[in-house]
Design brief:
The protein has two domains: about 45 residues, no CATH class; about 190 residues, NagB/RpiA/CoA transferase-like (Rossmann fold), CATH 3.40.50.10420. It contains six helices and 13 strands. The strands form three sheets. The protein has an eight-stranded mixed beta sheet, with helices on both faces. Strands 9-8-11 form a three-stranded mixed beta sheet, with helices on one face. Helix 5 links the parallel strand 1 and strand 2. The protein starts with a helix and ends with a strand. The N terminus is likely disordered.
């Protein structure tokens, strides 16, 4: 919860913006609007770089923005996270191609990430196929290098009896965490008509900042021109910024899904 002092500070900042005609709550009203706008301003302070220069400066900008987003995500309450998941499931049908998609690529949310579990259930109810990512490590690589050299692939995930999905603990990260990964047969990413991409922050032109591992960058960069899935960044509303630090070779998203709905990228 935000304390009284923080509440007053946010309200004062928003009153200042409104007086200049720059406060645009959009779909939000009242306290929720001010809270979303305040988070967006806080995160956006590190996100005003159109193209990050290669090298140390660009990487520093990315690290700073990731730290801000992770802190904001960690501050969300369980109730807020549940509301985000429910809203994403409700808004998924607004994505182009959704009504005709029989296969959708998605992800299993890490702590703090927008949760797409409700979307997976809706797809399963409709008889669709859900592709989820897993890492394929090189057993011949040194133990300390197996995670960084792993390749990401997608595999079919199916919901069985009692609502259980065919997922299990798999790849271990350098921090000791075991990722939950699908156990089904591998399928190419472009088998999906829509690919929901976990994203730390995204700009309105579709410039995406990931978690920093590079796994999605490699998969997205290797997608053929046809058939090619619609690439959709999934973020909280306050993580859509004017600019984020991206490199020239980064693959841009076609659209953005937030709890407020889908919007096409403008770039």
């Amino acid at each position: 919860m935000i304390n009284a002092g923080a509440h007053q500070g946010i309200m004062a900042a928003c009153r200042n913006e409104c007086s200049r005609g720059r406060c645009r709550p959009g779909r939000y009203t009242g306290w929720r609007a001010h809270r979303v706008l305040a988070r967006r301003r806080s995160i956006g302070q590190a996100g005003r770089v159109k193209h990050a220069p290669e090298g140390r400066t660009g990487e520093s900008a990315k690290r700073n923005l990731r730290a801000r987003v992770r802190a904001a995500r960690a501050a969300r309450t369980p109730a807020e996270r549940a509301a985000v998941a429910a809203s994403l499931a409700f808004q998924a049908s607004t994505i182009p191609r959704w009504s005709v998609a029989d296969c959708v690529g998605s992800y299993l949310a890490l702590p703090g990430e927008p949760d797409c579990a409700g979307i997976h259930d809706l797809l399963a109810d409709a008889g669709g196929t859900v592709l989820l990512p897993r890492l394929k490590t090189d057993s011949m690589a040194p133990a300390e290098a197996r995670f960084s050299t792993a390749r990401m692939q997608f595999a079919a995930a199916n919901r069985g009896p009692h609502g259980r999905w065919n997922v299990a603990r798999g790849t271990r990260t350098p921090s000791g965490q075991q990722l939950i990964e699908p156990t089904g047969p591998p399928l190419p990413a472009n088998r999906a008509q829509v690919l929901l991409v976990p994203t730390t922050a995204v700009d309105r032109r579709g410039g995406r900042l990931g978690q920093g591992g590079g796994f999605y960058d490699r998969v997205l960069g290797s997608l053929p021109s046809s058939p090619r899935p619609l690439l959709v960044a999934v973020v909280h509303d306050d993580e859509v910024l004017d600019d984020v630090p991206v490199a020239a070779h980064d693959v841009r998203m076609d659209g953005i899904l937030t709890p407020s709905g889908y919007r096409p990228a403008t770039g």
